[in-house]
Amino acid sequence: MKLLQWILCRRLGVSWNRSINKHVTLWVQLLMRQKRDYDLRLESRAYSVGDLVYLLNPAPKVGEAKMLIPICKGPFFISKVLASTLYRIKEKGGLVWCITTGPSLVE
After folding, report:
1. Position 10 in a domain
2. Cβ neighbours for 20, distance < 8 A, ≥ 6 positions apart
3. Backbone angles phi, psi at 78, to 5 degrees
4. Torsion angle defined by CA atoms of residues 38, 43, 44 and 46, in that order, rounded to the nearest 10 degrees
5. DSSP per residue, 67-85
6. Is residue 106 part of a domain?
7. Same domain, yes or no, for 58 and 95?
8. Separation of alpha carbons 107 and 98, rounded Å
9. For the chain, what is the domain count?
10. Would 88 be classed as within a structural domain?
11. Looking at the DSSP assignment, which residues form a beta bridge with residue 89?
12. Which of 3, 16, 91, 97 has the fewest CB neighbours in a 10 Å radius?
C-alpha cells in the first residue's frame, strides 16, 4: 500500500506530507476496494477440447456496413487448450485460430 501511495504522489506531482497522506491513503483504499469488487464479479469460463464456441466478430472492415455483418462467427470447436485462457479453435473447413478469453495469455 505504501508503494501505491508513493506512485500516486509522484503522478500528482505533490510532495509527501501529513496532510496529503490522509487523502492518498483514502484514495488507495478506494482503488483497492474497486479492484476487489471487480474481481469478485469477474466470471471466468473454462473450456475443454471438443466444446463448441462462437467467435465475436471484431470491428468491420473499411467499406463494410456495421449493421449488415453478423455479431458472431461460428460454431467452432476447441481443438487444443494452450493455457487456462488461451485456446486453439478450428472451423469445419479446417481454418485454425488461437483465441484468448481473459487478460493473461500465458500463466
Report:
1. yes
2. 9, 14
3. -75, 120
4. 170
5. GGS-SEEEEEEEEEE-SSS
6. no
7. yes
8. 16
9. 2
10. yes
11. 78, 97
12. 3
User: Lowest-pLDDT range, 10-19, 43-52, 72-81?
Assistant: 10-19
In the numeric block, the cell 449493421 is attached to: 67
Beta-carbon count within 10 A of 8 CB: 17
Is the same domain home to 62 and 93? yes
Q: Hey, is 3 helix, strand or coil?
A: helix
- Tell me the per-residue pLDDT of 67-79, one tens digit each, with 9 for 90 and over: 888 888 878 888 8
34 and 74 belong to one structural domain: no
The answer to whether residues 34 and 61 belong to one domain is: no
The answer to whether residue 105 is domain-embedded is no
Check if the beta carbon of residue 23 is closer than 8 Å to that of residue 50. Answer: no
Query: CA 87 to CA 32: how far, in whole Å?
Result: 31
Which domain, by its residues, includes 23? 2-41
For 76, other C-beta atoms within 10 Å of its C-beta total 21
pLDDT band at 105 (very low <50, low <70, confident <90, very high): very low
pLDDT of residue 106: 39
